[in-house]
């Protein structure tokens, strides 16, 4: 992942998320909203806005990491549906949202964007989230 321009996490992602670690390709970040299990993968590649801009090998790695994260999150949180999205309308830096959804959650069955007022995690909640997802986070390395 060498580049002439260094990777820098977008300030909105920095402000709205909590670091969970790194995968082979990505920053792994917890959305700071305790209402739903919600993790972002942000490829550590400078100046990338879209998946197709990544080299093919990194595209495949991103798909693998996304699938591994999705399966691990569904196992850990026993959701009814798993949502993956790469919108980028507010933050242009490429990032993939991974959200476990539950029938009857506050935004169900619609999308979560613009529906929920974030309820930030406290330190205990962050530690519990990390513990539930520990084996998945380890597998992403």
UniProtKB/TrEMBL annotation:
<protein>
    <submittedName>
        <fullName>HIT domain-containing protein</fullName>
    </submittedName>
</protein>
<dbReference type="InterPro" id="IPR036265">
    <property type="entry name" value="HIT-like_sf"/>
</dbReference>
<dbReference type="GO" id="GO:0003824">
    <property type="term" value="F:catalytic activity"/>
</dbReference>
<dbReference type="InterPro" id="IPR011146">
    <property type="entry name" value="HIT-like"/>
</dbReference>
<dbReference type="Pfam" id="PF01230">
    <property type="entry name" value="HIT"/>
</dbReference>
<feature type="domain" description="HIT">
    <location>
        <begin position="39"/>
        <end position="108"/>
    </location>
</feature>
<dbReference type="InterPro" id="IPR026026">
    <property type="entry name" value="HIT_Hint"/>
</dbReference>
């Amino acid at each position: 992942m060498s580049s002439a321009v260094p990777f820098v996490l977008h300030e909105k992602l920095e402000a709205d998320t909590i670091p969970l670690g790194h995968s082979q390709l990505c920053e792994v970040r917890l959305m700071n909203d305790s209402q739903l299990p919600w993790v972002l993968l942000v490829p550590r590649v400078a100046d990338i806005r879209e998946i197709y801009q990544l080299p093919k090998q990194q595209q495949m790695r991103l798909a693998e990491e996304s699938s591994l994260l999705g399966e691990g999150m569904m196992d850990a949180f026993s959701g009814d549906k798993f949502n993956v999205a790469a919108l980028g309308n507010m933050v242009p830096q490429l990032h993939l949202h991974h959200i476990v959804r539950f029938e009857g959650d506050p935004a169900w069955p619609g999308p979560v964007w613009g529906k929920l007022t974030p309820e930030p995690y406290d330190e205990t909640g962050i530690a519990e989230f990390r513990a539930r997802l520990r084996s998945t986070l380890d597998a992403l390395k």
